[in-house]
Specification:
Layout: E1 7-10, H1 16-24, E2 32-35, H2 37-53, E3 58-64, H3 68-81, E4 85-89, H4 94-104, E5 112-116, H5 124-129, H6 136-149, E6 154-156, H7 162-169, E7 174-177, H8 196-201, E8 206-209, H9 211-214, H10 219-230
Parallel strand pairs: 1-2, 1-8, 2-3, 3-4, 4-5, 5-6, 6-7, 7-8
Helix pairs in contact: 1-2, 3-4, 6-7
The chain binds orotidine-5'-monophosphate.
Length: 231
């Protein structure tokens, strides 16, 4: 199915049945869904298959980061599972990312392969303690360029970095951003949130949105309101 919408709903649930119950309240023609580490560790490939059976395209957000051979095998396994998007950590380096990309060559239905630059939870002090003496924004720019030069399809970044990366990495580079909040909704634990229209203006392709949709009284209406704000 082709999904024109930029919304990826983060199914951040500890139990597969909760995630699948939420999926039943969403329309696969209007949103894609994201399965992260907690849900996958509990539910495994079966939860991804169940979401596929319901018609959803799935972003498998496991952020692989290991030696090249291991990451290549994991990315291939994700492709064999039929996911729409999968990710690795750009800080694993170009040899790791090239191996991941190589693993998808010739695959019947290769997923989009993207890389995480700097997590939105990391500040300058967090980078400093692991020996990186740069502003997060500079590190994001460096890792995004490495990702593009390694032939990957795009990056996960903060929407506030999207305009800079769109200019630096070109139009064909997918920008996937969490930390999105419709105007008037709670920020929760996210910092420096961005509204959907602002994210779009800054060049974001895909918006990862969790609680504003999954905790809404009416998730369908929450999705429709966001799509309306983008039209
Ligand atoms: O990779 C991610 O999806 C991610 C990266 C990041 O830097 N920050 C971040 O918030 N996320 C994820 O984006 C989702 C945001 O959910 P909400 O804050 O509920 O909209 C969660 O699944 C987070 O784990």
């Amino acid at each position: 199915m082709t999904v024109a919408s930029p919304i990826i709903v983060a199914l951040d649930y500890s139990q597969p049945d909760q995630a699948l119950a939420m999926a039943d309240r969403l329309d696969p023609a209007k949103v894609r869904v994201k399965v992260g580490k907690e849900l996958f560790t509990r539910g495994g490939p079966d939860v991804v298959r169940a979401l596929h059976d319901k018609g959803f395209q799935v972003f498998l957000d496991l952020k692989f980061h290991d030696i090249p051979n291991t990451v290549a095998g994991a990315v291939k396994a994700a492709a064999d599972l039929g996911v729409w998007m999968v990710n690795v950590h750009a800080s694993g380096g170009s040899r790791m990312m090239l191996a991941a990309r190589e693993a998808l060559v010739g695959h019947e239905r290769p997923p989009l392969l993207i890389a995480v630059t700097v997590l939105t939870s990391q500040e300058r002090a967090d980078l400093q303690e692991i020996g990186i003496d740069h502003e997060p924004e500079d590190q994001v720019r460096r890792l995004a360029a490495l990702t593009r030069d390694s032939g990957l399809d795009g990056v996960v970044c903060s929407a506030r970095e999207a305009a800079m990366l769109r200019a630096a990495c070109g139009d064909d580079f997918a920008l996937v951003t969490p930390g999105i909040r419709p105007a008037g909704s709670a920020g929760d634990d996210q910092r420096r949130v961005v509204t959907p229209p602002q994210a779009r203006e800054w060049g974001v392709d895909f918006m990862v949105i969790g609680r504003p949709i999954t905790r809404a009284e009416n998730p369908t209406a929450a999705v429709d309101d966001i799509l309306q704000s983008l039209s």
